[in-house]
Each structure stands twice: as C-alpha cells, then as structure tokens.
Amino acid sequence: MDTPSKQVADALGLLSQRSLRRRMYAHLTQGLGEEINESTYLVLSGLDRCGPSTPKELATVIGLDRSVVSRHASALEKAGLIARATDPRDARWIQLSLTPLGQDNVAVMRSRLTQKLEEFLARWPEPAQQQFAEMLTALTNDKPFTH
C-alpha cells in the first residue's frame, strides 16, 4: 500500500499532465469565442490572478515562453479581451491587462470550474468536502516546495 505522500505525489503528477489540463481548459472555454480556447486560457487566467503584467512576468508565472504569451496576447487584444499599455514602472516595457470583456469571460470560466467541482464534490459527505478543501488550500498556501 502506498503512503499518503506517494498517493498525493501520484495525483499531482496526473493533474499536471498536459492532456488533462487541455481537456479541462477546453471545457472551461467552450463557446466563448474563437480566441478563447485551451491555448489562450492560461494567459487570461494568469492576468486575472496576477493583475497587469509584462509578457515576461506573465510567462514566468504561467509557465509559458514569453514569445507564446506575446502571440496569444496579440490575438486576445484583437478580440478585445486584453489591453496593452506602457508599463508605469518603465516606459520601455509593455503591460498587459484584462479589459472588462476579458474580465467577464474569465468570470464565466471560473464559474464553470466551480460548477464542475461542485458536481464532483457533491458525491462526498459534507465533512469530507470541507476537509478536502482545507487540505488542498493548505498545500497551496504552505508552498512546500519553496523552502
């Protein structure tokens, strides 16, 4: 029998697989427009979580190459979902931010994710749901890999 740590490590490995993430992003972005898809999801979601950022900063946070972020940003800007402006910290830099339309679409995606998780967790007893939420939150807040 595997230890709890091994079980968690295996589960995290599965969650980090690209194929699983792409299926999840495809579900969350379905029907939101041509430019909002499993490839651009990370840019929109990252800007929502981080706030206005340079392409380099955003690329570091979401784990994509800066050129990929810039390419997606161009498409999202044309669709009116993000805006580019001069970064107030340095006029040589460009800062990306969500437009109100981008914020609205991210809200839809977050709602879909919450709904999907509610459907999944509904099969569990309430105390187990609460314990899982607390433990997952602790794992992400305590950041065991930053030390």
TrEMBL record:
Domain HTH marR-type: 5-141
Segments crossing the lipid bilayer: none
SMART domains: HTH_MARR
Gene3D superfamilies: Winged helix-like DNA-binding domain superfamily/Winged helix DNA-binding domain
Matches recorded under Pfam families: MarR
Stretches assigned to coiled coil: none
InterPro entries xref list: ArsR-like_HTH, HTH_MarR-typ, MarR/SlyA-like, WH-like_DNA-bd_sf, WH_DNA-bd_sf
Domain of life, per lineage: Bacteria
Identification of the protein by name: MarR family transcriptional regulator
Record organism: Pseudoclavibacter albus
